[in-house]
Design brief:
The complex is a heterohexamer. Chain A is an alpha/beta fold. Chain A contains 5 helices and 7 strands; from the N terminus they run H-E-H-E-E-E-H-E-H-E-E-H. Chain A has one domain: Rossmann fold, CATH 3.40.50. The model of chain A has no long low-confidence stretch (mean pLDDT 82). Chain C is built from 24 helices and 6 strands. Chains A and D meet through helix 1 and strand 2 of A and helix 2 of D. Strand 6 of chain C pairs parallel with strand 1 of chain D. Chain D: Keywords: Membrane, Transmembrane, Transmembrane helix.
Chain lengths: 157, 118, 627, 285, 125, 360
């Protein structure tokens, strides 16, 4: 395995996760946390909940965006170094869910930041969450490869 | 300080409890509320599901015989299934898989097809 | 030849200082002072180059000078008596009288007139002389710019700079006097002059606080002078020795230890060791060049010089062991106290006392590598500390505060000074620099003495802590990281640049330094040399330290970092992580202060207890004579 | 230094991160097993670091880059010197250069977490740096030198310095930042300071620090191993066993308070050192 | 429990609440309701497991705050202030509109009528 | 030194998954003041009552908080039932009680895990959550969903527990109890855990009462308030004593919660054995009559208060929820000043915060 391949592989093997609860009802939060615990153990895929956007590759967001936390969400997203992937876990994060008619709710997080993976469910089951994160890891790898292509193209041109 | 040692050593001596999803899947419980399905052939477009849905994620158009459902808004409460007069709505035990694009489930009676659209 | 040069280095500044006081015009004064400094500097270089070491030389002017000094003693003491009434500090009067009476008795009834060799010159003198005549002039040059700004701030109607520079010059002359004199009475005289000039310079601003602190400094130093005088008298009474060369030739005996104890005690007061430390802290009200020159790099080093001189007389005694313990105790106690400070100058003051304690401790250990460590510490500390004081002075004049909390984000406001301060602090606390190298040597030398070693190690760890956070503060970038172009006066620039260069070059050339001047001194002390140095590698029988790889590594890191910053266009700058909330306006932003541990370290209470302990230790040193 | 010294130096510098990464990987796997989880693959730390290295270079402050490089280089240098059996005290001093810069790098950003973390790291350094030197003094009492070469020729330090060995194990526990000592950063970030001192390091610079940590980990383990330098395989086993004990302790205790750590480590350090050396002094001769 | 609350004049409110406080009652909550163009604020107290309610009718201005009697009323009064725009006099700590709503949230969203405009920027932190 | 630092805590913070913002003013590491800011979860779902009919609102109030969702639904349904004068079948009452107690167990275990994580005891976190999965399995097997189980409807419950399931539940509970005993031992006796909890965040009985604290927060301080003794749902048929500890520190609150878990296991066993056969719901016709009602019940975090005003249509006029965490916030702000920075997560978690409850 060449070095380049190893680097690419490492992106899919070591996606660090930061979880931001963006106004969720806790249902999805505890499922995200449950993914880290012995029964589901996401660390098998190298996923660690690092809690700090600056270290993270995957931002997993639960809950709806409201007027107050949209800036926070944007901040957290901006602080993540590229390549980065956003997972919207649960229907609230996807579309605002049952709360999308409330006065303080903007809707899904895609109103604020670009979303790469949508995980439906209310709340999304840990298995679904793992699927979503696994998919996110693949997207991460892809994004890295794509960036690499762009960079090498630049250096040629 | 040493109270935890018991669990440490019992865990070390045992196999990890981790369910090796996705390599091994556990059989879901049969009343799991996984995802909503509509057997459109039997649907009479009565609109009951639309009316009872707490999340307003189902839209039924009687005239054009269209049953539209947004899985990214559905809270999977199952009320529609209970209220469905024809029992054509069904909650499948498997959860809906993740996607990179949101879509609506758009079912029409004429051509029995499922179209994906944003 | 040598004796003439030495004479010039002593007399020239003193005479020039008397002239300076009469010059009112700023330009003329500056030129005059500069010329004097140049003389001092050149003469010291000449001594260094030409002197045949070690040597005891006489001069034909001995008689006149001796008479002058004898008269000078009384003039000085009566002046302090006068000062005592002026500042209403009875303690000064007590110690003045306590000195006048024995001095008169001693000189009238005991002391026999004899022609003595005037100067005692060896490598230690040369080292001290170089420190005084290199660091001293640099600081004086710095003071040109500093004092102008200082007086502008104070809005003085009439400039008092001529007095200021006169005292500085007087002081430099007196320092050279201490360093080269062979006659102990001369040393005593110059010693008292430094005390007095310290008083005059601390009280320079004539504020109430300044006068209060100055008189405190004076009485404590007078106590030291008294102790020194007592030591000399006892020495003369029992052995008839009045000169350094004679003292160093005698074999150590119990009877010698008593006067030595008193002289060492005098050194403790001058080095502001533990129960006497308050004067040095108070002295920080003086203009910063004074703090740099007198209270960190030279005058307090006179104390170290004295103890180093006396070291052979108490080698191997219990007294020596207690001196080591005492120094180590002062080192850790003042380090702990420094931990609780946020005032930059106070931190430096405490750290100065601590480092002096470290040197005293090394001298107390009294093995060849320990003495080497002490001498190296003396050199490196003088340069780095002077540099740091000057940096703080510059910073204070620019931002109006000497509090390290107010120095947050300094790098954006005054990048050049900050970088120099950064290097200055580094040179005091991390490894390839000379200070740490000497500390390494001191700890290895101390390792046989477990208690001393423990104290030194703990103290060093604390030192790292309070300096590190200071660096962190000055380097932290503000929210609006806009760099300003800094304007520095040319005198200030000269002083900072030259000192920082000296600090780095000396550290790089530590082996050469060691071979050139430290090794001969150790040789002269007839100690077996256990330290070898060659091509950046210092080796003792306990271990070895190579400097070049470390410098290489740091240099490599700097280059790598610069290359990364320069070459990559993909570096993204973000806001600091503040839990998702980032306030843009600084009023609402978060601000973290350093930890000063007020719950553990209460300066007043701690000082009280530490003073008791150190007092007991001094008693123990005295008891060490008997053992 | 001779040519063979250079070779050993280079070999140590190249091999150490591999060993350190593997040990870290094993640590994570064992921790997972203790917790009843399956855990990450053993090579996980390498994936992490390689990934971090190829991520976007994100900084708050240019100085961070400098700090990260110095931290790494000083760790490399200290390991290299260790490999050629130089003066241990010098090695510790060189190591502390890196630590100082590590702290300064964190203090230089305005993030409150990283600043508080840095303050805590300073306290932590205050707790373990002296102990590390105490250990060396203990070795000096036995071997009469600080040179690793002389110390290693002594053979079985463990028999003479059992308590000092405990002190060094304590240092290891503080140094690898596991419970009950994970104040300034924590492995899994679930503490009040997020990742504390590491909060504002990102991407490649975080990776550099991670690699430097491996170097330091290996250095400390090697220091434990030389307590049985007669047979270094046994020494290595002993040090790995200590490491395993640290993992267990991590898993059976909560994070303690800073003051507790300071008083605990200093008490243990001073008392054990004095008792051990006193024992050597009075009993052995 | 079906609510039968006793109406209290605004002027008597504090003395009534003080009576409850001195009688050993625990403060449970305040509830604000829209009442056409007025607001009704129900104060709920409990002793043991029994609840007692009183209410006031107000136009939303200068309602005396009970947070000096029951300091825990502070949170709920701040909330009512933000969500309904009812002004309280003598709030122990005024969060100034930063308690529940964000800068860009709708202003007094739960009120049918809008009395006061939330002032921006006047944070009391 | 009067230098004070300000440190943010949240909204994005790994210790506290939920977004709450505290601006802490600290001196060294001692917290001097704490200024909270809420609203990062504020959705305004109380106003949804005017948009969705009262039956649909059950599913909305369940999503006030995902942890004790079942009890929210139960309280809401009980309020509506009281307003409409509907008597639910006894079996439904029992079933509600069982699910409520299961939720209490899962909530307390979840809390214990997070709490352990807050003071850096990762292994304890993992072990608690491992046990918690068994409860989650029970919930999933009986209701069809893991977290938000949506079983309560106005007039009863939607799902039944058959005898086979009951047996399985009992077996699982035995297992859980067995494993919990070890955990309990750790929480009560481990030196490091005690060091971090004993004497930390002391709230006296008077303060707890005065500040209106509820649930384990109040019970840990010696305030004897447990709404289950008022005998709503099936509690009137069951035999239990409220759990009260006196010390008022974090440790006492731990003990309350730990003992409550065992109590809940016991209650479920009692309920399963006493549960009569019969209908699980009654049909509800018409709309709730005009009127106001307050309904309370004991959640895992304390007393929740539902205020409902109906105007006779199918849309409610006003729905207001006073959640337990909302009542505990003043107590939290009381115990924060004076603590150490490293105790802040411990203190925040000691009230078992549910921010989405608080802000709705």
């Amino acid at each position: 395995m060449g070095l380049k391949e190893f680097v690419k592989k490492s992106f899919s093997k070591s996606p660090w996760v930061v979880h931001y609860d963006c106004g969720s009802c806790n249902g999805c939060d505890i499922e995200v946390l449950a993914c880290m615990t012995p029964i589901y153990d996401m660390e098998r895929f190298g996923m660690v909940n690092v809690g700090n956007p600056k270290h993270a590759d995957i931002l997993i967001v639960t809950g709806t965006v409201n007027e107050k936390n949209k800036d926070v969400l944007k901040n957290v997203y901006d602080m993540m170094p590229d390549p980065k992937v956003v997972v919207a876990a649960g229907i609230c994060a996807c579309s605002g869910g049952i709360f999308r008619d409330c006065y303080n709710v903007l809707g899904g997080i895609d109103k604020v930041i670009p979303v790469d993976v949508y995980v439906p469910g209310c709340p999304a089951k840990p298995e679904a969450m793992i699927d979503g994160l696994y998919k996110a890891a693949q997207i991460l790898k892809e994004k890295y490869s794509r960036k690499e292509v762009i960079v090498s193209a630049k250096s040629l041109g | 300080m040493l109270d935890m040692l018991k669990s440490v050593f019992s865990n070390l001596s045992r196999k990890p409890v981790t369910r090796m999803y996705p390599y091994e899947e556990r059989k879901p419980f049969d009343i799991n509320r996984g995802h909503l399905e509509n057997n459109i052939d039997e649907c009479i477009f009565c609109g009951m599901c639309q009316r009872v849905c707490p999340s307003n994620c189902i839209k039924v158009d009687r005239k054009t015989s269209v049953w539209e459902y947004n899985p990214f808004e559905c809270v999977l409460c199952g009320v529609c299934v209970e209220k469905c007069p024809k029992k054509c709505l069904k909650l499948d035990v498997h959860y809906r898989s993740c996607t990179d694009k949101k879509y609506n489930i758009h079912l029409e009676k004429h051509d029995d097809s499922e179209k994906a659209g944003a | 030849m040598t004796s003439d040069l030495v004479l010039i280095s002593i007399i020239a500044p003193i005479v020039m200082s008397l002239t300076t006081i009469t010059i009112g015009k700023a330009v003329a004064r500056k030129a005059f002072v500069l010329a004097t400094l140049l003389i001092v500097f050149l003469s010291s270089l000449a001594i260094f180059k030409t002197a045949n070491l070690p040597t005891v030389v006489g001069t034909s002017f001995y008689g006149i000078i001796d008479k002058l000094i004898k008269v000078g003693d009384y003039v000085l003491l009566f002046y302090t008596l006068y000062v005592s009434f002026k500042v209403k500090e009875p303690k000064i009067a007590i110690f003045s009288i306590l000195q006048i009476l024995p001095l008169a008795f001693f000189e009238l009834f005991m002391l026999k007139e004899q022609e003595l060799n005037t100067f005692y010159i060896d490598n230690l003198s040369i080292i001290m002389n170089l420190v005084v005549s290199v660091v001293g002039p640099i600081i004086a040059v710095y003071a040109f710019g500093y004092m102008d700004h200082h007086e502008e701030e104070k809005k003085l109607a009439k400039s008092r700079q001529s007095r200021f520079f006169a005292i500085i010059l007087l002081f430099i002359g007196a320092m050279n006097g201490i360093i080269f004199s062979n006659n102990l009475m001369w040393i005593y005289f110059f010693w008292e002059i430094t005390s007095l000039s310290s008083f005059l310079l601390i009280s320079h601003d004539k504020t109430e606080e300044a006068i209060k602190n100055a008189s405190k400094a004076l009485w404590i130093n007078m106590l030291g002078g008294f102790s020194l005088l007592v030591g000399i008298i006892i020495l003369y009474k029992y052995t008839g020795i009045i000169t350094l060369d004679a003292l160093l030739k005698t074999n150590s005996s119990y009877i010698l230890l008593i006067p030595v104890f008193f002289m060492v005690l005098a050194a403790f007061t001058k080095a502001a060791q533990m129960p006497f430390q308050s004067w040095l802290l108070g002295a920080m009200v003086a203009p910063t060049p004074v703090s740099a020159l007198l209270h960190s790099s030279t005058m307090v080093k006179a104390a170290i010089y004295l103890i180093l001189r006396l070291a052979p007389t108490f080698r191997g005694t219990t007294l020596s062991g207690f001196i080591a313990l005492y120094g180590a105790f002062t080192f850790i106690a003042t380090s702990i106290l420094a931990l609780s400070q946020s005032n930059g100058k106070k931190i430096l003051a405490y750290s100065t006392i601590a480092n002096l304690g470290l040197m005293i401790s090394s001298i107390g250990i009294n093995t060849s590598s320990a003495i080497t460590a002490a001498i190296l510490l003396l050199i490196f500390h003088a340069v780095s500390k002077a540099l740091l004081f000057l940096c703080v002075g510059t910073i204070e004049q620019s931002i109006g505060s000497r509090d390290i909390e107010d120095m947050k984000g300094l790098i954006t406001k005054m990048p050049v000074t900050t970088i120099i301060t950064f290097i200055g602090i580094l040179s005091l606390m991390i490894a390839p620099f000379g200070m740490l190298l000497s500390k390494w040597m001191a700890i290895e030398a101390a390792s046989r003495n477990l208690l001393v070693a423990l104290l030194l190690i703990l103290g060093s760890a604390i030192t790292v802590m309070y300096y590190t956070r200071w660096i962190g503060n000055i380097l932290s970038e503000g929210r609006n990281s806009k760099f300003f172009v800094e304007k520095q006066l040319s005198t200030i620039k000269f002083a900072l640049y030259s000192l920082v260069t000296i600090a780095i070059v000396l550290s790089l050339a530590v082996t050469q330094l060691f071979n050139a001047i430290v090794k001969p001194e150790i040789n002269m002390l007839k100690m077996s040399i256990s330290v070898k140095a060659a091509s950046g590698y210092l080796e003792s029988n306990l271990g070895g330290f190579s400097i070049y790889p470390v410098f290489f590594a740091i240099g490599l890191a700097v280059i790598l970092a610069f290359l990364t910053i320069k070459n990559s266009h993909d570096i993204v700058q973000t806001k600091p992580y503040e839990a998702g909330l980032n306030y843009d306006d600084s009023n609402n932003g978060y601000d973290v202060k350093n930890y000063y541990l007020p719950s553990i370290i209460n300066e007043a209470v701690m000082t009280k207890y530490m003073n008791y302990i150190s007092f007991i230790l001094i008693l123990a040193i005295f008891g060490g004579i008997l053992l | 230094m001779t040519w063979s010294d250079y070779l050993v130096f280079a070999a140590a510098v190249i091999l150490t991160p591999l060993i350190g990464g593997l040990i870290t990987g094993l640590d994570r796997k064992v921790t997972a097993l203790i917790q009843g989880r399956y855990g990450p693959p053993v090579l996980q730390p390498f994936y992490d670091v390689v990934k971090l290295l190829s991520k976007e270079k994100m900084i708050v402050n240019d100085f961070q880059i400098f700090a990260a490089y110095i931290y790494l280089l000083s760790a490399i240098l200290s390991v290299g010197f260790f490999a050629i059996k130089a003066d241990l005290l010098m090695i510790i001093f060189i190591m502390s250069i890196g630590l100082v810069f590590y702290v300064i790098g964190a203090l230089a950003t305005r993030s409150p977490y990283s600043q508080v973390g840095a303050q805590r790291e300073l306290m932590q350094m205050l707790a373990y740096e002296p102990l590390l030197i105490f250990v060396l003094i203990g070795m000096y009492y036995v071997a009469g030198s600080f040179n690793l070469h002389d110390i290693m020729s002594h053979g079985r330090l463990l028999l003479d310095l059992p308590l000092i060995f405990v002190v060094l194990s304590l240092v290891l526990d503080i140094k690898i930042k596991k419970s009950p000592f994970d104040f300034s950063t924590s492995e899994h970030a679930h503490q009040e300071l997020v990742r504390g001192i590491l909060t504002d390091y990102a991407g490649p610079y975080l990776a550099l620090i991670e690699i430097a940590d491996w170097y330091e980990l290996v250095l400390l383990l090697a220091m434990l191993a030389i307590f049985w330098s007669q047979n270094l395989v046994i020494g290595a086993l002993i040090s790995l066993f200590v490491f395993f004990l640290d993992i267990i302790v991590d898993n059976i205790s909560a994070r303690m308070t800073l003051k507790w750590m300071l008083s605990f480590s200093w008490t243990i350090g001073i008392v054990f050192t004095v008792v051990n050396i006193g024992y050597l002094y009075f009993v052995s001769r | 429990m079906i609510v039968n609350s006793r109406e209290v004049e605004i002027s008597n409110l504090k003395s009534e609440v003080k009576k409850y406080h001195d009688g050993g009652y625990r403060f449970v909550t305040e509830t604000c309701l829209n009442l056409e163009d007025k607001f009704k604020i129900i104060y709920t107290f409990a002793i043991g497991y029994d609840l007692e309610n009183i209410h006031i009718i107000t136009d939303g201005k200068n309602v005396p705050s009970v947070s000096d009697i029951y300091s825990c009323a502070l949170a709920v009064e701040n909330e009512i202030k933000e969500l309904f725009g009812v002004e309280f006099d003598g709030l122990a700590v005024d969060f100034g509109g930063d308690f529940m709503l964000g800068e860009s949230s709708p202003i007094s969203p739960q009120a049918d009528i809008e009395i006061i405009r939330r002032e921006k920027g006047g944070k009391n932190e | 030194m009067s230098d004070k630092s300000t440190i943010p805590f949240g909204p994005q913070h790994p210790v506290l998954p939920e977004p709450i913002h505290l601006k802490l003013v600290v001196e060294d590491e001692k917290v001097v003041e704490a200024y909270p800011a809420f609203g990062f979860v504020h959705r305004g779902l109380e106003t949804l009552a005017q948009k969705k009919d009262f039956n649909q609102m059950v599913y909305v109030v369940e999503r006030v908080c995902g942890i004790c969702s079942c009890m929210h639904g139960q309280d809401y349904c009980e309020a509506i039932e009281e307003l409409m004068g509907v008597q639910v079948p006894v079996r439904a009452e029992y079933l509600r009680t069982i699910w409520a107690e299961l939720h209490r167990i899962h909530s307390h275990l979840l809390w214990l895990g997070l709490f352990a994580d807050a003071f850096g005891f990762e292994n304890l976190f993992m072990q608690t959550w491992k046990i918690r999965e068994k409860i989650m399995d029970i919930l999933e097997a009986t209701s069809g969903n893991r977290v938000i189980i949506s079983v309560n409807i106005v007039g009863g419950v939607r799902k039944d527990i058959n005898s086979e399931q009951a047996k399985w539940i009992l077996k699982e509970l035995d297992d859980v109890e067995e494993q919990l005993k070890d955990i309990n031992d750790v929480v009560m006796n481990n030196y490091t855990v005690k060091e971090r909890t004993v004497g930390i965040g002391v709230l006296t009985k008077e303060e707890a009462y005065e500040l209106g604290a509820t649930g384990p927060m109040a019970k840990g301080s010696g305030v004897d308030l447990d709404l289950r003794t008022t005998g709503y749902a099936a509690y009137k048929y069951l035999d239990f004593e409220p759990i009260v500890e006196k010390d008022g520190d974090s440790y006492a609150r731990n003990l309350v919660r730990m003992r409550e878990i065992f109590q809940s296991i016991d209650l479920i066993r009692q309920a399963l054995s006493k549960m009569p056969e019969g209908d699980i719901n009654v049909p509800v016709k018409g709309n709730p009559p005009a009127g106001e009602v307050i309904s309370r019940l004991e959640q895992s975090r304390g007393e929740v208060v539902y205020y409902i005003k109906s105007n006779g249509t199918k849309f409610l006029d006003r729905l207001r929820i006073r959640t337990p965490t909302f009542a505990n916030i003043p107590a939290l702000l009381k115990i924060l000043p004076g603590s150490q920075l490293q105790d802040v997560p411990v203190l925040i978690l000691t009230i078992d915060p549910c921010i989405s409850c608080t802000e709705r």
